[in-house]
């Protein structure tokens, strides 16, 4: 991602209504607006949708870290396929239901190989 131009505090103050309207109109596709002094970013404005997406991604990442730590505490480790699915879920590429379905399919495949 290219770092956008930094809007000065004074310009942000003068144009806040316009900046907010543009963020709202663009929704999740809105580019962040950096605000600062002397071309140095000190803060950022995001659309609500972009902020919510960041929060959701963080919560997913923390959930995966917690689950992985629980598995490790039992002396076990996750498989590469499970790690890849968890990463895809954190990025929002698959749903939680899809991640569970894949885990069940892998488990059933292991059971079938043992029985066969």
Could you give a short description of this structure?
With 116 residues, this protein is of the alpha+beta class.
Word description of this protein:
With 116 residues, the protein is an alpha+beta fold. It has 2 domains: 6-46; 51-115. Helices cover 65% and strands 12% of the residues. It is built from 4 helices and 3 strands, in the order E-H-E-E-H-H-H. A 3-stranded mixed beta sheet has the order 1-2-3, with helices on one face. Strand 1, helix 1 and strand 2 (33-37) form a beta-alpha-beta unit. Helix 2 (48-73) runs antiparallel to helix 3 (80-90). The longest helix has 26 residues, at 48-73. It is elongated. The termini are far apart. The mean pLDDT is 92. This is Type II toxin-antitoxin system Phd/YefM family antitoxin. Residues 60-106 form the Antitoxin VbhA domain. It holds the Pfam family VbhA.
Lay out the secondary structure.
Elements: E1 6-8, H1 9-26, E2 33-37, E3 40-45, H2 48-73, H3 80-90, H4 96-115
Organism: Streptomyces millisiae
Family: Belongs to the phD/YefM antitoxin family.
Protein name: Type II toxin-antitoxin system Phd/YefM family antitoxin
């Amino acid at each position: 991602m290219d770092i956008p131009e930094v809007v000065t505090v004074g310009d942000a103050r003068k144009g806040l209504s316009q900046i907010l309207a543009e963020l709202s109109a663009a929704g999740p596709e809105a580019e962040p607006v950096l605000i600062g002094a002397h071309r140095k970013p000190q803060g950022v404005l995001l659309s609500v949708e972009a902020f919510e997406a960041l929060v959701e991604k963080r919560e997913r990442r923390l959930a995966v870290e917690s689950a992985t730590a629980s598995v490790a505490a039992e002396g076990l480790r996750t498989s590469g396929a499970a790690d890849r699915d968890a990463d895809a879920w954190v990025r929002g590429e698959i749903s939680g239901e899809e991640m569970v379905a894949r885990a069940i399919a892998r488990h059933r495949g292991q059971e079938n190989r043992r029985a066969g």
